[in-house]
Amino acid sequence: MKAFIEAHYKMMDINNDGLVSIEEYRYNCITRLAVDDIKLVDDSYNSLVSEEDNKKGGITLERYQELYSHFLGNENAKCPAIYLFGPIPE
């Protein structure tokens, strides 16, 4: 599972700088999802990242692994990790 998570992260980190930026997140989302408004994707990213993530310039692999664990194991429907793969349809 760890290798799967790392491989997905590496696919998102297009420029291989060790951070998934909003631009990389957008690209990942729009290649998989039909989105009417890019603002939905931006809002999802902004809900996903912490203040610390923003200071670093994006999501590190370590943070992505943390978010992935929350995505799988947190039952709270308002957990930010629900946006790990993009906007949630209403």
UniProtKB/TrEMBL annotation:
Protein name, as recorded: EF-hand domain-containing protein
Keywords per UniProt: Calcium
Organism field: Anopheles epiroticus
PROSITE patterns: EF_HAND_1
Taxonomy, superkingdom: Eukaryota
Family annotation (Gene3D superfamilies): EF-hand
